[in-house]
Amino acid sequence: MCDFVSWIEVKDKVGKVKHYYLTGNQVFDTPRGQMLRDWCQNSDDYVGHGAIRFYYELDSGIGEEKECTNFAKPDNFPPEIVVDIKAGKMRGLGTPEGLLRQPVWDEYKAKEQPAWDEYIAKIQTTFWDLFVDVNNSYSIVDVWH
Prior knowledge:
The chain is mostly helical and 145 residues long. Helix content is 42%, strand content 10%. It has helices at residues 24-28, 31-39, 49-56, 79-86, 102-132, and strands at 6-11, 17-20, 64-67. A 3-stranded antiparallel beta sheet has the order 2-1-3.
């Protein structure tokens, strides 16, 4: 599995470098992103090199696969990725340690588990309510009535 942020660096015939990577918008708000989400095994795969190759239809032998988890300096990333991180375009793709100042990260970690627990409780309730609601029209659930 690859780490957030991952990219593929491709040099053309004259040596110009292009960086292929994915933003949250590409993954969550485009038809190709929907195909990618269907193709991936789980949401952790959205940030990997395989996902990048799938999205851009890059053959496996093309380019150099790179990733960096050290958010201490923007210089650790290609400039276009830095611009997209600052613009919030990576939203939904990861929560890397080191991107936030320590007090903000601590606050995030303190809220993460309770928020996750609340989310799971709502999802479970919604899911199981489908079996109770006799007026629903959700595919196989009708078999249970």
